[in-house]
Amino acid sequence: MQAVAEETAQESAQEPAQKAARILLVDDHPIVREGLTRIINRQSDMLVCAEAGSVAEALKKVLGSDPDLVIMDLTLDGSLAGLELIKAIAARFPGLPTLVHSMHDEQVYAERVLKAGARGYVTKASTLTTLLAAIREVRASGLYLSESVSATVMRRYFRGEESGEPSVSALSNRELEVFAMETHRSNIKEKLSLPNSAALMKRAVQWVLENK
């Protein structure tokens, strides 16, 4: 009996710890990737196995690093190429979930990334606790959206309900890029108390001349 007990104890001691989720980070800013890597690697249940700064590099790293989850920005290669990366991963690696971590407005992009194949959306303005919770939720075969948009997006996305009102979801990816740029321009005009785009352009030219 003692021999059996000792053998059982040895087998238990040799059993591996729970496997940490292998994460591929995709962001075109190295400093962002470095910061996220340090944070994630402090968690016992997750590990950054690879990093990428572009769509092409990300697809290569998926093949080479065998991740369990991809955390990615939407803005890659100077455009909203992240949307195409989500679609490519969903098509070529259907069992691999993607979680978007982006500065873009969740109200505008969340529904679009879900339709492209992503499993969640977290803004870069969110807390560390929120990001880690989102990673764990998506890793557990779930979906993650903030409370502020989840009810509306989930209702339309899964039940096919439409509000009957025009939505940015009807825009193409290129049109959405233009929409985002115009939104930023509107915000700048408001902050600088400028009446129109011509005044904004004049202020921009003046700033460039003064800071040459």
Summarize the structure.
The protein is of the alpha/beta class and 212 residues long.
Report on this model:
By secondary structure, this protein is of the alpha/beta class. The protein folds into two domains: 11-159, Response regulator (Rossmann fold), CATH 3.40.50; 171-210. It has helices at 2-14, 30-41, 55-65, 82-92, 106-116, 128-139, 147-159, 173-191, 197-210, and strands at 21-26, 46-52, 69-72, 98-102, 120-123. It has a five-stranded parallel β-sheet with strand order 2-1-3-4-5, with helices on both faces. Strand 1, helix 2 (30-41) and strand 2 (46-52) form a beta-alpha-beta unit.
Q: Provide mean pLDDT, rounded.
A: 77
* N to C succession of SSEs: HEHEHEHEHEHHHH
CATH class of the largest domain: Alpha Beta
By CATH's scheme, which homologous superfamily of the largest domain applies?
Answer: Response regulator
CATH architecture label name of the largest domain: 3-Layer(aba) Sandwich
* Biggest sheet statistics: 5 strands, parallel
| Integer count of domains | 2
Overall shape: it is: globular
Give the strand line-up of the largest sheet. Answer: 2-1-3-4-5
Uncertain regions: pLDDT < 50 for 5+ in a row? Answer: 1-16
> Would you tell me which CATH topology of the largest domain applies?
Rossmann fold
How much helix is in the residues?
Answer: 40-55%
Beta-strand residue percentage: 5-15%
CA-based gyration radius: 22 Å
- What structural category arises from helix and sheet content? alpha/beta
Which oligomeric state applies? single chain
- Could you give the count of β-strands? 5
Instruction: Please give the alpha-carbon distance between the first and last residues.
Output: 85 Å
**Count of helices?**
9
